[in-house]
Amino acid sequence: MKVFKFGGASVKDAAGVQNLARIVRQQGMKSAVIVSAMGKTTNALEELVWAWIANERPTVDAKLTQVRAYHEGIMAGLTGDFSAVYQTLAGLESLTTSAPAGGTDEVYDQIVSLGEVLSTQIIAAHLQRAGIPTRWLDARQLVRTDVTFREGKVDWTETKKRIIDAVDKQQVSIIQGFIGQAADGRTTTLGREGSDYSAAIVAFCLNAESVTIWKDVPGVLNADPKWFDDTVLLQRITYQDAIELAYYGATVIHPKTIKPLQNKHIPLYVRSFIDTEAPGTMIGDIGQHLTTPSFIFKVNQLLISLHPTDFSFIAEDNLSRIFGRFAQAGVKINLMQNTAISFSVVVDNDQTRIKSLLDMLRQDFQVSYNDGLELITIRYYDQSTIDRVLVNKRLLLEQKSRYTVQLVVKEA
Ligand SMILES: Nc1ncnc2c1ncn2[C@@H]1O[C@H](COP(=O)(O)OP(=O)(O)O)[C@@H](O)[C@H]1O
Ligand SMILES: N[C@@H](CC(=O)OP(=O)(O)O)C(=O)O
Asked: Aspartate/glutamate/uridylate kinase domain: from which residue to which, for each copy (predicted)?
């Protein structure tokens, strides 16, 4: 059985949904199809959550109207029985008339997960009307996680049992990416951009023959084409190179996607949903690592420097305290470096998490920070590639290993 994953960009309008139907009809009539929220719906729902928590009623109403109008606009260009979609929209509107219940992250998952529910309800209805035998499955009944809201950890045993029971291999299963459910019935999400990971979870559980993620790019390139003009398609990539590129921030694949696939030797194809004849990129058990230098840019980075207030060394006890605080705040470290009594980390400057992190760190450390930075990673670098990216940049921090260099820079 094949697993397909369609992201928000691929189903941002009615034409995108029709294109999905065309691809499924041509290449995946017996596939599990994992779909993300349409277009930028997740961002809109995030804004709705923050406004709801802050009791900013006009913004909540504006976001509800925006989400409804956007999905109604897409349905207007399609055919199908969309009654389930209207029920979900009504449920969202009625939920937000009362005050939010639960912690911020729990409330977030309750609302933001609905983007994927809406998209899959529209797509399943459209495929059914188009004569494609389709079952809509609820990922909340399939993907069992712990209660780490916004970053659910998968219970693989339970998830595998549920997925095997639910998926009918003779037809198309439409399943939401990104979302799951804890044992107590509360909805969780797997982390932003987590639908690629959902596809890998389903593939792992079903021992799928392959996973294909359909993208708005020809495949995995040696840099994000939004940043670089002369990119090169990477036709074949080892699991190891793929996991390293994704880990450093090549957003074309979610970093958690690779491990479940590598563990079962399931190939991952990254292909264009625009040019569906093109082969794209194959990630799998291939002998040869990459030779082309690859560039990864992360913007809006924050460099945090910590100095123990008691002048103690940055050794095991301080390190474990620091990592504990980062884990508690849910902030991932993109790069770290230490000297005897200083520890520097580079993180995404996520406004919703950084303030509480800095408050916690200030209890034991003198904290300083520098914002508005870029983190540039080059895998398989040489000096000319470093020189190329440092034009008009001031270098604040550099870290080199045999294959990878990371540069923290500020616009000069
Ligand atoms: N190395 C890379 N190769 C190809 N695309 C990349 C790379 N790094 C970043 N990207 C970006 O990833 C985007 C596709 O991912 P994303 O927008 O998250 O898709 P989706 O919504 O389908 O999951 C591309 O439009 C491209 O800008
Ligand atoms: N909708 C979620 C999950 C996801 O993976 O989306 P996409 O496939 O469009 O990146 C998000 O935006 O985070």
From this structure: 2-272
Residue 148's nearest CA partner among 177, 180, 111 is 180
What are the pocket residues of ligand 2 if the criterion is a CB atom closer than 6 Å to any ligand atom? Answer: 7-8, 36-37, 42, 115, 177-178, 192-195
The CATH code that applies to domain 2-215 is 3.40.1160.10
In the numeric block, which tokens belong to residue 260?
């479940």
Cβ of 217 closer than 6 Å to ligand 1, yes or no, is: yes
52 C-alpha vs ligand 1 centroid, how far in Å?
30
If you take atom 4 of ligand 2, which residue's CA is the nearest one? 193
CA 115 to chain CA centroid, Å, is 14
Q: Strand 343-348 vs strand 294-308: parallel, antiparallel, or unpaired? A: antiparallel
State the distance from the centre of ligand 2 to the C-alpha of 343, rounded, in angstroms.
33
Domain ranges of the chain: 2-215, 294-411
Pocket test for ligand 2, best of 108, 193, 251, 348 (most atoms within 8 A of CB): 193
Asked if 280 and 218 count as a contact pair (C-beta separation under 8 A), the reply is yes
pTM above 0.80, yes or no: yes
Nearby residues of 368 by Cβ (< 8 Å), 6 or more positions away: 304, 305
Specify the CATH number of the domain 294-411: 3.30.2130.10
Q: What ligand is nearest to the CA atom of residue 274?
A: 1
pLDDT in tens, the chain (412 residues): 999 999 999 999 999 999 999 999 998 788 999 999 999 999 999 999 999 999 999 999 999 999 999 999 999 999 999 999 999 999 999 999 999 999 999 999 999 999 999 999 999 999 999 999 999 999 999 999 999 999 999 999 999 999 999 999 999 999 999 999 999 999 999 999 999 999 999 999 999 999 999 999 999 999 999 988 889 999 999 999 999 999 999 999 999 999 999 999 999 999 999 999 999 999 999 989 999 999 999 999 999 999 998 888 988 989 999 999 999 999 999 999 999 999 999 999 998 899 999 999 999 899 999 999 999 999 999 999 999 999 999 999 999 999 999 999 999 8
Residue nearest to atom 2 of ligand 2 (CA): 193
Based on the number of CB atoms within 10 Å of its own CB, is 53 exposed (0-12), middle (13-18) or buried (19 or more)? middle
**What ipTM goes with this model?**
0.98
Hey, how many other C-beta atoms are within 10 angstroms of the C-beta on 192?
A: 15
